[in-house]
User: Which sequence fits this backbone?
């Protein structure tokens, strides 16, 4: 529109050319008729141009310059031809020519003036339109700016602008929240205020890209807040240009990714944990995706299949996990396929052998389980299997060990049986020996004693006293030896004979002794037996030996002329009962007490005895699991004690 | 018991003991004759009337058998066992006179049918007492006093 000046004052399209020229011609015609109308009044040649001035003006006003010029030309001709005398000739009169020139000049001025008026008006209109448009654009720009400002203001991301020197220009509320600096604190400072020392070079990199007009998108890095904390962020930087298109700075959008980083780190830790767990468990683990392609295998699986993780990942499972039946060599159905088909955990049959990449074979057992997000579709399978070799070997070794053990046990049993047999043989030998002593050795003794007695009995009254004494010595010696043999036999028997233990009523046993043995009769000694003697676990014949000896000793070893006074009492000691036999005898010096219970120990030759009695007591008590002892002092009597196990109450005799 | 007053049949392999036994029975003034043989086998022969004992008149069945446990050829337990199985002789009382005072021997002898058990004493006087006890217990009805 600018520059190209069209006629017509309206802003709309100008009238077509024929209308503009038509109007020019028509106005000239109307001018001609208008002058004709005046002719009756003023004559035919007066004021020839009077009505042609308005015609030119109207033609120029309506049609513009050229139609105006046409109207000027036509009007000049018409006025000169029709209304200059002489009429209908081209007057050569100097005055008429001058009038015509004047008309031409005036008409051209009118056309020019109207044309100028048109131009001025058009310019004014254009200017107004231009201004309106500019105003509309300004409003729009203002709206956009305020929208953008609102976006910046309320954006969750920190949005910062800086100039090319890196000086912060703007700073939005999110930036305040994220970094802790208020806008007035940081605007005008250098952005590297936010940079960790080891990342200062990032600014050079960013600015380098910006100078070439290249944006920086989602750079993941670390920035430092006002309080010194590190914030993982994602930074996008775009160049800012002035209206001339020159880069004058940059806008930075800084997105806090600490939650994402934390989540990612947690995920990494989970993965690390899972990887460590999978690596460290003794079982081999292979994981596949839903297509049965391997996505993971752990170290044990690598060892067994001889496939490395890198080689195996992406391979279909059956290539890596080749399994056949140990005996039939038939290929066993791939458990992962089975899981994918059934969608449930499956186990593997026994006697399955895994063929590794290098064709070595390992017996394995395994199971496979589907992996599904809770309730969701299956998206993988985990296959767990273990090397069965060691267990097989262990079972083999166990069987071997058991076999050896039972062999050894049998050997041991045989040895024990052998030893026992030999021991029994020895015992039997000893017993026959004792038997032989009892019968054969004592017979000659008896003969000696008896015949000596006969000799003495039948000796004439006048025989020498010595001879009689000798006979008596033979008789006494034989009797002593016989007693000795008898006691030795009792001792041997106590030591060797099997003596089953059962509950024995001690009170009853001792009362029986007092009635049986003449030396214990009430006539010979005072023996006081406590009423509440316990029921002990013992052997009746061994106990008889024990107490007949103890009581016999108690009444025997008294000072001459002293009536024996003996007390039998008991004392409870946990599971044992201590039975005391106290006498008023001559007592035993302390130095002799330790060897008192030895074989053939006689303390006092004044008293008749074999020196075996207390050895027998100790032996029989030990056979019953008990102990013996004595407390005594010379002249103050003796207190012998025997500890015996108390019989369980519920057991009857 | 046999109605006939038979002899007392004793077994004793030891020469001295035989003499002492005979002496004791004499001093105890026991009425019947005392026949002493040397071992268990001879008792069997005597009772069965074998060999030297064929003549039952010269060797009548005894009224009492006194036996030791330890004897050559056939010991006392074997003899008791044999006697228990003889319907003709099992009524003849058998008593043991042994050196052994062992409880086990006593019990075993009783189980095998011995009517009494005496331990050989050390003196003649005591043996005389035993002989008298035997007479009192086992000889009264058979031996006319």
Assistant:
């Amino acid at each position: 529109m600018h520059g190209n000046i069209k006629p017509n004052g309206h802003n709309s399209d100008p009238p077509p050319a024929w209308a503009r020229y038509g109007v020019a011609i028509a106005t000239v015609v109307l001018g001609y008729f208008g002058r004709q109308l005046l002719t009756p009044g003023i004559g035919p040649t007066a004021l020839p141009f009077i009505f042609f001035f308005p015609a030119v003006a109207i033609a120029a006003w309506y049609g513009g310059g050229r139609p105006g010029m046409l109207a000027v030309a036509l009007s000049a001709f018409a006025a000169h031809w029709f209304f200059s005398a002489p009429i209908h000739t081209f007057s050569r009169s100097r005055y008429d020519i001058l009038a015509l020139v004047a008309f031409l000049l005036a008409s051209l001025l009118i056309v020019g003036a109207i044309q100028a008026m048109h131009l001025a008006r058009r310019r004014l209109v254009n200017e107004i339109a231009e201004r309106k448009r500019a105003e509309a654009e300004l409003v729009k720009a203002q709206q956009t700016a305020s929208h953008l400002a609102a976006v910046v203001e309320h954006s969750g991301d920190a949005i910062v602008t800086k100039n090319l020197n890196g000086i912060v220009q703007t700073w939005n509320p999110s930036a305040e929240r994220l970094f802790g600096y208020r806008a007035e604190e940081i605007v005008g400072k250098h952005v590297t205020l936010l940079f960790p020392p080891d990342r200062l070079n990032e600014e050079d990199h960013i600015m380098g890209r910006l100078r070439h007009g290249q944006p920086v998108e989602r750079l993941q890095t670390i920035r430092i807040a006002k309080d010194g904390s590190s914030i993982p962020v994602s930074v996008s930087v775009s160049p800012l240009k002035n209206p001339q298109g020159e880069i004058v700075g940059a806008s930075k959008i800084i997105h806090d990714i600490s939650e994402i980083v934390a989540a990612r780190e947690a995920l990494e830790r989970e993965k690390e944990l899972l990887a460590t767990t999978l690596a460290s468990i003794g079982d081999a683990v292979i994981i596949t995706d839903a297509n049965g392609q391997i996505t993971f295998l752990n170290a044990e699986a690598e060892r067994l299949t001889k496939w490395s993780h890198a080689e195996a990942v992406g391979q279909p499972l059956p290539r890596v996990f080749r399994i056949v039946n140990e005996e039939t060599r038939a290929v066993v159905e791939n458990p992962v396929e089975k899981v994918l088909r059934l969608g449930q955990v499956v186990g593997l049959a026994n006697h399955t052998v895994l063929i590794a990449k290098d064709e070595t074979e390992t017996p394995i057992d395994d199971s496979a389980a589907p992996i599904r997000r809770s309730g969701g579709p299956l998206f993988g399978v985990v296959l767990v299997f273990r090397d069965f070799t060691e267990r097989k070997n262990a079972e083999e070794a166990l069987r071997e060990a058991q076999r050896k053990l039972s062999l050894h046990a049998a050997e041991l049993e045989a040895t024990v049986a052998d030893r026992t047999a030999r021991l029994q043989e020895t015992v039997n030998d000893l017993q026959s020996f004792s038997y032989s002593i009892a019968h054969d050795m004592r017979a000659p003794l008896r003969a000696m004693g008896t015949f000596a007695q006969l000799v003495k009995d039948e000796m004439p009254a006048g025989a020498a006293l010595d001879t009689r004494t000798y006979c008596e010595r033979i008789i006494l010696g034989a009797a002593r030896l016989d007693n000795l043999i008898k006691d030795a036999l009792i001792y041997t028997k106590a030591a060797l004979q099997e003596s089953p233990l059962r509950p024995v009523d001690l009170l009853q046993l001792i009362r029986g002794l007092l009635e049986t043995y003449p030396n214990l009769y009430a006539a010979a000694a005072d023996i006081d037996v406590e009423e509440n003697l316990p029921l002990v676990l013992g052997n009746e014949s061994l106990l008889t030996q024990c107490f007949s000896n103890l009581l016999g000793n108690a009444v025997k070893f008294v000072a001459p002329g002293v009536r024996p006074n003996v007390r039998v009492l008991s004392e409870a000691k946990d599971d044992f009962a201590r039975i005391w036999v106290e006498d008023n005898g001559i007592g035993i010096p302390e130095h002799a007490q330790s060897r008192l219970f030895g074989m053939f120990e006689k303390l006092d030759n004044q008293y008749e005895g074999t020196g075996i009695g207390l050895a027998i007591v100790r032996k029989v008590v030990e056979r019953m699991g008990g102990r013996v002892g004595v407390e005594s002092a010379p002249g103050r009597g003796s207190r012998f004690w025997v500890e015996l196990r108390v019989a369980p109450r519920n057991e009857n005799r | 018991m046999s109605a006939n007053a038979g002899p007392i049949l004793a077994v004793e392999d030891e020469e001295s003991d035989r003499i002492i036994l005979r002496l004791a029975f004499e001093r105890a003034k026991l009425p019947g004759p005392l026949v002493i043989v040397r071992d268990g086998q001879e008792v069997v022969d005597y009772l069965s009337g074998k060999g030297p004992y064929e003549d039952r008149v010269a060797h009548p069945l005894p009224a009492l058998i006194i036996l030791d446990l330890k004897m050559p050829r056939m010991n006392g337990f074997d003899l008791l066992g044999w006697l228990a199985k003889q319907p003709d002789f099992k009524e003849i009382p058998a008593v043991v006179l042994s050196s052994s005072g062992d409880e086990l021997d006593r019990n075993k002898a009783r189980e095998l049918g011995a009517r009494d058990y005496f331990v050989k004493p050390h003196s003649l006087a005591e043996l005389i007492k035993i002989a008298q006890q035997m007479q009192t217990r086992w000889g009264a009805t058979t031996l006319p006093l």
In short: Chain A has five domains: 17-129, 155-263, 290-387, 388-497, 499-645. The first helix of chain A runs from residue 17 to 42. Chain A touches chain B through 23 residues (CB under 8 Å). Residues 17-129 of chain A form one domain.
